[in-house]
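# step 3/5: fold
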Amino acid sequence: MASKNSFCTDELSCPVCLHIFQDPVVLPCSHSVCRGCLQRFWSSNRQQCPICRKRSKSSSPPSNLVLKNVCESFLQERSQGASAELFCNLHNEKLKLYCLVDKKAICVVCQSSKIHKNHDCCPVDEAAHDQKEELKSALRSLQGRLDKMQEIKVTCNQSANHVKVSTNLTIV
């Protein structure tokens, strides 16, 4: 039996983009898709359902508010339940690995897929630590440059004031 989350994710996924619905609309054939997915599909095809290809007479299908509310509730529960944990949009698995080639977090299923099969990966925590160290180093460098710029600004302001005073003395 499927877990509650996998069932909900499958049921709440747009059949076009395979992500949780974003602003779902309902077509006359009763299929629902994301408004953005439908607009992209209609820009390259006639006004027809991307699932069953039934023609739609309306150029602006109504929002599926119930589905939208359910999706929003699901996403909110998922984000509260897994405070710092993120999930793969494709497989709804926890993002436990970091692809060093593509520089992004991936799930275990993604690692074995064709896209990442031969890529070097490491645990997300390890990659996060390495990235934090890189950021700290870059921040130190930037902080040093900021300090120098502030010193230059003070010098420029002093020079500007000196020029103003000299100008006022020359004019009088």
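# step 4/5: annotate
Confidence is low (pLDDT under 50) at residues 1-5.
# step 5/5: archive (pending)
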